[in-house]
Write a structure and sequence with these properties.
Length: about 100
């Protein structure tokens, strides 16, 4: 499957301000991808793997990016955590047999 290009239109004045602070078009695009990936992961729109793919970072670098931005990689609610502990307990008992 091919790629789809998404374009961000910026007012020229805004782009000039950003470029004056060292942001090239490539850096703006890269930062935009990372922020979109972070938001999509945080809102559970994309999995960790898909969000890291969108960000252009390796999975481990994306995990670090999430951490740097206060987004937990694992975000269990009480019911999910209880279910996982019960599953782990059952597996542990089976292995001991």
């Amino acid at each position: 499957m091919g790629n789809v290009q998404a374009v961000i239109d910026l007012p020229e004045e805004l782009y000039l301000s950003l470029s004056a602070s060292g942001l090239t078009k490539e850096k703006i695009a890269g930062e935009s991808r990372k922020l979109l990936a972070l938001k999509c992961f945080k809102e559970k729109v994309l999995s960790l793997g898909r969000a890291s793919e969108l960000s252009g970072l390796s999975k481990w670098d994306f995990i670090e990016y999430l951490s740097d931005n206060g987004v937990p990689v694992i975000d269990y609610d009480q019911a999910e955590m209880k279910r996982d502990f019960e599953t782990a307990d059952k597996l542990s008992k089976r292995l001991k047999k």
